[in-house]
Specification:
The chain has 593 residues and is an all-beta fold. It folds into four domains: 1-112, no CATH class; 160-354; 364-522, no CATH class; 527-592. The chain has a 44-stranded mixed sheet that branches. A three-stranded antiparallel sheet has the order 47-52-49, with no helix packed on it. Strands 48-51-50 form a three-stranded antiparallel sheet, with no helix packed on it. A hairpin with a 5-residue loop joins strand 50 and strand 51. It is elongated, with a radius of gyration of 33 Å.
Length: 593
């Protein structure tokens, strides 16, 4: 029987012996289980917890300590319960330290009824094998209400089940700090839930979960709070790989709880790979009741049955959502849900590459991006969407505006490259929620390239529907590979006193009013005028709301003399020629305020 070694250290008074590493060691030998202290004294043999409980109890009497579990296979038949108000570290020899069992009980558990919030636990370098567990649905390792809990390099293998709960590999709730790093989970209903005011899930590998793959959350409404803390926190899911996760729910999620009356905390989802290979997932991503969310540098690939960015919502006062620098290559199998639905007042969607293919879909999706907001920025994305014949998306980017006169809304859609293989109603739509009074929205839709498989793939390029004045609508530099079925732009207000001010290079003939009360005023316009044979001038009604500060003219034929502009007023200007032409001369013009 091998004793825990002592190591000599030299000091001025001579060599001494000091304990180096462990306060207790658990090991298996000749089919038996043992626990001994740092001095080689055996204090346990063949307990139902394979001497883990006895080792925990032993170090706990001194306020805690480090427990080393030597390589070997251990077959516990009951749960090891962890005490409160201690520091305990349990670690082994990596995959050579294996806890193997099939029963419906936890391996480790900590959930005090009246927590001290002083307990600290670290679990490192061991494996849990429940691959023969059959239909038993159980959590494996639970830690709730600790000051600090960490799992590092722990592997869990189980049998896949479709349990709705109580079947989680690493389950951490309501801790002050919770960290799960470099762990691996296979075949659970829930992979890992990392709950802490600071919750971090990093560099983990999760395969084949039914409900959730990787979840991080802070203190959610209704949870027991430690002194000095409030609901919320910081949750980080970073550099994880999740394969075939969320077959019935979601692959990765920052979840601060449904049914809350307000949003709390900050969530960061960064650098993850979410991939389906042999199955499909329901949602690849959810953000629930988080106040601020950053989703960046992730890869989402495979097949989903619902959506990619599902349930991105807050309750009460969400503030900010950024979805940027992500690569998405996804097939929707039978989904009519939008690619992303969000009610964050400020939403930024930029620098993403998104390829979406709809298959087996029988009804029309209402939107692709469905966003409730005060400020929306959709910039520099490359997006390709393919739909079966007969399927149409109602709106591609639908910004449902809400706010007040004191807080006008902003919608900026700029520099995107969009390819749509299928039909669509509106590509860009700014629609005010009629329960609000937004009288000064600012809309910029510029420099977008929109192409499709045919020249009639859309009805309108831009739609603006408001219940108040539009302070400024700027639309220029947008290109399509064909004229829409109706007009390039549709404008609508509900009162003759309301106005939409336009700065656009879209011809007036392609701007339509779809309300008898609608009035729109141009701040930029263009057209063609004709100087008749024998005449030396022509007057142009520019149609602007203001006196132009700039008028540019270009003859569309060889002029007979010099051309210039005069008499610029709030309604018209005059194009002059020094020598009357012998035949009609067409002149292109553009004017702007």
């Amino acid at each position: 029987m091998q004793q825990l070694p002592y190591y000599p250290f030299n000091v001025r008074s001579g060599p001494v012996r000091r304990k180096l590493t462990y306060d207790a060691v658990v090991y298996t030998e000749d089919g038996h289980y043992f626990a001994e202290d740092a001095y080689g004294h055996i204090f346990c043999q063949d307990s139902p917890t394979v001497c883990m409980q006895e080792a925990v109890n032993y170090v706990a009497q001194f306020g805690g300590g480090r427990i080393y579990v030597r390589r070997g296979i251990y077959y516990p038949s009951t749960t090891t319960n962890l005490p409160d108000n201690v520091y305990i570290e349990i670690y082994g020899d990596g995959n050579e330290t294996v806890f193997s069992y099939t029963g419906p009980y936890l391996l480790f558990s900590f959930n005090p009824s009246t927590p001290s919030w002083n307990a600290v636990f670290r679990f490192k370098d061991f494996k849990v094998d429940r691959s023969q567990s059959g239909s038993n649905n159980t959590d494996i390792m639970d830690v709730d209400h600790a000051k600090y809990v960490e799992f590092n390099n722990v592997e869990v293998i189980d049998n896949f089940r479709t349990a709705s709960g109580d079947d989680c590999a690493i389950c951490l709730y309501n801790n002050i700090t919770a960290i799960v790093e470099k762990c691996r989970v296979y075949n659970k209903s829930y992979g890992m839930t990392v709950g802490g005011y600071l919750s971090v899930a990093k560099n983990n590998y999760v395969v084949n979960t039914y409900s959730e793959g990787v979840v991080a959350q802070g203190f959610i409404q209704g949870s027991v709070l430690p002194p000095g803390y409030s609901y919320g926190g910081l949750s980080i899911i970073e550099d994880n790989t999740c394969i075939d996760c969320g077959r019935g729910d979601e692959a990765i999620s920052i979840d601060y709880g449904g049914g809350a009356t307000a949003s709390y905390g900050t969530g960061i989802i960064r650098g993850n790979r979410v991939i389906t290979m042999n199955y499909t997932t329901n949602h690849m991503l959810t953000i629930i009741n988080v106040e601020k969310a950053i989703i960046e540098d992730n890869v989402f690939e495979g097949t989903v049955t619902s959506d990619v960015g599902g349930n991105i919502w807050g309750n009460g006062s969400p503030i900010y959502l950024a979805f940027r620098n992500n690569y998405v290559n996804v097939t929707y199998n039978g989904s009519t849900a939008p690619f992303m639905s969000s009610d964050f007042p400020t939403t930024i969607i930029e620098n993403n590459k998104i390829n979406i293919t709809y298959t087996n879909i029988t009804s029309n999706p209402s939107d692709f991006f469905h966003l409730y907001l005060r400020k929306l920025f959709v910039r520099n994305n490359s997006i390709s969407v393919s739909m079966p014949s007969g399927i149409s998306i109602g709106n591609f980017v639908s910004g449902n505006l809400y706010g007040t006169d004191a807080e006008p809304t902003h919608m900026v859609v700029d520099g995107n490259s969009i390819y749509i293989n299928g039909s669509i109603g509106f590509v860009f739509r700014a629609a005010e929620n009629n329960s609000y009074s937004v009288s000064r929205p600012y809309v910029v839709i510029a420099n977008n390239n929109v192409n499709g498989a045919s020249s009639s793939f859309l009805s309108f390029l831009i739609d603006i529907e408001v219940y108040g004045n539009v302070e400024y609508a700027r639309m220029f530099g947008n290109n399509t590979n064909g004229t829409p079925s109706y007009n390039m732009v549709r404008l609508w207000t509900n009162s003759s006193s309301m106005s939409i001010y336009l700065d656009t290079d879209i011809p007036s003939s392609q701007i339509g009013s779809y309300s008898a009360f609608n009035l729109y005023w141009l701040k930029r316009n263009s057209g063609t005028a004709t100087i008749a044979s024998g005449a030396t001038s022509v007057t142009v009604n520019h149609g602007l709301v203001c006196t132009p500060s700039r008028v540019v003219i270009t003859p569309l034929g060889q002029p007979s003399g010099n051309l210039w502009v005069s008499n610029i007023t709030s309604t018209s200007f005059t194009i002059n020629i020094s020598t009357a032409p012998s035949a009609n001369l067409s002149v292109a013009w553009s004017a702007e305020c």
